[in-house]
Each structure stands twice: as structure tokens, then as C-alpha cells.
Write a structure and sequence with these properties.
- The termini are close together.
- This protein folds into 2 domains: 5-15 and 86-209, HAD superfamily/HAD-like (Rossmann fold, 3-Layer(aba) Sandwich), CATH 3.40.50.1000; 18-80.
- It is 46% helix and 11% strand.
- Helix 1 crosses helix 4 and helix 3 packs across helix 4 (63-80).
- It contains 9 helices and 6 strands; from the N terminus they run E-H-H-H-H-H-E-H-E-H-E-H-E-E-H.
- The protein has helices spanning 18-31, 43-46, 51-59, 63-80, 90-99, 112-121, 145-153, 168-177, 197-209, and strands at residues 5-8, 103-107, 130-132, 161-165, 181-184, 192-193.
- It is α/β, with parallel strands linked by helices.
């Protein structure tokens, strides 16, 4: 299979920031006195969707949701100030993607400001060719729209791209977009399960070699 583009999720895939998002959501809900009201809703399960979609699921549509998003973003950026490292093999995955002749696009449900802060903090930004953030699109994952934006940016057919993520929303978006290779760091139907990014590199290299 000829691969020309790598589509990579950010939080929980390239970086261990999913846990920071979860803490920021809980801190924001506590600050607004809403944590007890939403205990029946799993914030952790919602991770991987756009911030406004998560907030709406928690408190309903309207000004309260946007207030929650702003407060959560403030807490999240504050947590990032403590420093951050990428997951093992994240740098190598991006390097290998380029060495195999592919472009690398990060497609994340995080806001652009949060995504760029993470990419800069982990020194991954210089290795990424394109970023699609949650506030760049009207519909986020699991809708395939953000994935298609990345494909269109590089004029790549879906079957010529690989996707890697860690949530059901990533996998559903990749499959709906028709990507040729779909991998997940967690066992999810419809994706090849890889235990870490190091294993993902090997899967990508084997897949790319089939086109030779």
C-alpha cells in the first residue's frame, strides 16, 4: 500500500495529556459548582471530542457550556506550564513518517491554542506539517470532516493515509474517512491494536514495504 500521509491524534496518542484534560475538566466543573450534577456522566468517556461538544454533553447547550470551555482551557494551559514530554517513540514516529516520503498531520479535538501549546512544549511542532484543531471545524471526531481536511490539504486519497489514535472517536473518524491503515493504542474494533508508538512504526514500515 502506497502511503502518502500520516494522520495522528494528539492527546493520549503522541502525548500523555489526556489525563491533564480530565483534571482540567473536573477542576472547571468544581469551580462552577457543577461537579456533583454531572457525576452520572463519564467525562473520561467523552475525551477525544471537541471541547464544546464535551461541555454541551455535560451542561447542555448555551452560555454555560462556553463558560465551562473557557475555564477548562485556562486550567489546562496552567497544567501544561509544569512541563511535558511526548510519549516514547513519538519523535521517531514522525521522523519515520517523513523518511518514508509521507507528510504528517495532527488532527485533534483540542482547541488550536491548546494543541499548539502541547506541540511546542513537547518539541513536536517542528516535525508536524499540518494541524487540524477542534475549533477549525464545525463537526469534530467521530465525524470524518477534520480527517478530510487533512487529506484535502495534501491532495491525498484516503487509502493513501494511515491514522493512529487512542479513542473510539479517532477510530470511527478514520474509518468513516476511509483511511487505508487504522491503528489504535487501545483495543477498539475496526483498528489494528498497537501497544505503543514503537510498535506502530513497525506496522507502518511493513505496510509501506508492500507497495515496493
Amino acid at each position: 500500500m502506497m502511503l502518502r500521509l500520516g494522520v495522528l491524534d494528539l492527546d493520549g496518542t503522541l502525548t500523555n495529556t489526556a489525563i491533564l484534560h480530565l483534571k482540567a475538566w473536573r477542576d472547571a466543573l468544581t469551580d462552577l459548582g457543577l461537579l456533583d450534577e454531572v457525576r452520572s456522566i463519564s467525562v473520561e468517556y467523552l475525551l477525544g471530542r471537541r471541547a464544546i461538544d464535551i461541555a454541551t454533553a455535560l451542561v447542555g447547550a448555551g452560555p454555560q457550556a462556553w463558560r465551562l470551555v473557557r475555564l477548562k482551557t485556562m486550567y489546562y494551559l496552567d497544567l501544561l506550564s509544569n512541563g511535558l514530554d511526548p510519549f516514547p517513540c513519538a519523535m521517531e514516529l514522525l521522523d519515520e513518517t517523513h523518511e518514508l516520503g509521507m507528510m504528517a498531520a495532527v488532527v485533534t479535538s483540542s482547541s488550536r491554542s491548546s494543541a499548539l501549546a502541547v506541540l511546542k512544549a513537547t518539541r513536536l511542532l517542528e516535525k508536524v506539517d499540518y494541524v487540524v484543531a477542534g475549533d477549525d471545524v464545525e463537526k469534530g471526531k467521530p465525524d470524518p470532516l477534520p480527517i478530510r481536511l487533512a487529506l484535502d490539504r495534501f491532495n491525498v486519497m484516503p487509502k493513501q493515509a494511515y491514522g493512529i489514535g487512542d479513542t473510539i472517536y479517532d477510530v470511527e473518524a478514520y474509518r468513516a474517512a476511509g483511511l487505508g491503515l487504522v491503528m489504535s493504542l487501545n483495543p477498539i474494533n475496526g483498528a489494528i491494536h498497537v501497544k505503543d508508538l514503537c510498535e506502530a512504526i513497525n506496522v507502518i514500515k511493513r505496510t509501506a514495504s508492500l507497495a515496493l
